[in-house]
Amino acid sequence: MLTKLPTLPALPGWNSIRGRMAIVLAVPTCLLLVLTGLGVADRAADWSAARGTEAQVGVLLQVQGLVRELQRERGLTNGLLGGAEEYRDDVRKQRDRTDDARSALRAVLSEESGDLPDASASALDDAQIPLADLPVTRAEVDTGTADRAGTLAYYTKAVTALVDAESAGAAHGERRITEGVQALQALARATEAVALERGSLNGVFAAGRFRGGEYLDFTGIRATRLAALGQFRQLATPAQQSDLDAAFKTAAARRVGGYETQAERGADGSSLNVAPARWWRDMTTLVDDLHDVQRTVGDDVRAVAEDSGSAATRELAGFLGLGALIVAVATALAVISARSITRPLGALADEADAVAGTRLPTAVKRIQEANPDTPHPSGPNDPDGPQLPGTAREITRLAAALRNVEHTAVGLAAEQAVLRRNSTESLASLGRRNQTLLRRQLGLITTLENQELDPNALAELFELDHLATRMRRNAESLLVLAGEEAPARSWPGMVTVTEVVQSAVAEVEQYRRVAAVDVEACRIRGHAVAELSHLLAELVENALMFSPPQQQVEVYGWRDGAEYCLAVVDRGIGMTLERMAEANALLSGSGSFLTAPTRFLGHHVVGALASRLGAHVELRPTAGSGVTAYVALPAALVREPSSPAVVSG
């Protein structure tokens, strides 16, 4: 046994063409948007990195400003502790500049902390911790209790912490930016080495000789400077290297080199005759020149970061615009594609509705009402049909197929009309012929009845007369079904209802089983007698057919206001409610007898006769069992005449 696979739920909107077009176009559109989103994310990362680099470089330059002031304070303080009292006023003024630089750095950090990398912001916060002891160190220097080596080490520790913090949270992004930041950090270490050498030798020259391990510190500082400068030259641009070379080629830098040569000769602790003020002045010029080179490098890095940020912004805007364009194009394509399909399909649906509701019925009616001898068209009036919007071949084929269906339907309707007309005319012709023959036959039988004296033979003639009467009713039924005019039999004046009932009973085979139980007196107009008698005969015969052989069929008649009602009651097998509803529909005159089963032709005859008379016929269940046929005659047929009517036949 095969198991039916579960049906997957339909996608939202899949039940309409517009929805399907939207879904089909949404898949590649989403893929394009994903690719565009990746580009946007990449450009956004570059833009964020560029902004972070700009902020970091700005903070680094501010840190370098504080480092520069601390380096000057360190060098002057070391000279003061070495015995150069002329530095005391300079030390006091330099402390104020250092404090201003600290305040400026705090302000910049509070503004730019959101754009800095977390590692860099944290490192800069930690680097300012050693500066908390700066007031204590200054107080010891002022009271003369400070140790020169210890004080130099404290300042160096504070400066080194700030320089090391510059390396934390290194920028990641474009190679030029990364190398520029690294070059700036290398130059900061080299400048710190030069400034540390300035401060260290300032104390040595003030004291007149190296003491303890000061010479080893001097050589270590020079080695650090050379290593940092070598790293800077590897990372710097040719223009930045040229600026550095220019800083070391000034007259002050050359004199610094001479002082360093003299210091090298004092490695054994011999006396050094170098004026501290001259050393400080020339060395400060070199340090300031290096700081200028630092600022130039920082400006270059910031400019590159700004250019990268601008480029990233433009590319980001381009990707966003591309995404919007993709969405707009996809939406436009979906709308245009859907309309190119739905509009012609809508036009085809409208045309199909017009064909089914107006054009085809009109064409069929025209064919049916046309003169049989006049040629009729086999298709609609407009064989080409309306022009549909859109030129898709599939839509054109569908429109052509619809018009072919219309042509074929009209052609079939024409053929059916001809067949129905021929059938109707054949029935009418047969009915007329039979009616004529039966009229002659009844005339002959009447003549024979008048001449016959033998009772047995006369009885047989009466039976033959009754059989011919029934045959005449069948011939008249053919004429009724064919839509012919009322039968030629007619009575002038008015005829009693009892006589009409008797005439109807005389036209059925088992007339002995029919009883007019209670028929209230009334008269019927003569022109309606034949058709009413025919109608009652059909109902009575139908009741006899579906009743037991020994059971009577009863006929009742009574007035109901201006109308007159007749009832044909049988107590046979009865009918289901569904079948009774179908029969009542036929009795109301709806439906075509050409498509009805032969056992229902009597209902069509009754319905047609009732329509001619303006009467209403309805079947209802009989109490107990069986069916009762009610006939309501309009007042126009039962109005009493001013004088008695004479029955004639």
From TrEMBL:
Record-given protein name: histidine kinase
Superkingdom, taxonomy of origin: Bacteria
Catalytic activity: ATP + protein L-histidine = ADP + protein N-phospho-L-histidine
Higher taxonomy: Bacteria, Bacillati, Actinomycetota, Actinomycetes, Kitasatosporales
Pfam family, any one: NIT
Region (Disordered): 369-390
Enzyme Commission designation: 2.7.13.3
Ranges for domain Histidine kinase/HSP90-like ATPase: 531-635
InterPro entries found in the cross-reference section: HATPase_C_sf (IPR036890), HATPase_dom (IPR003594), Nitrate/nitrite_sensing (IPR013587), TCS_sensor_his_kinase (IPR050428)
Keywords assigned: Kinase, Membrane, Phosphoprotein, Transferase, Transmembrane, Transmembrane helix
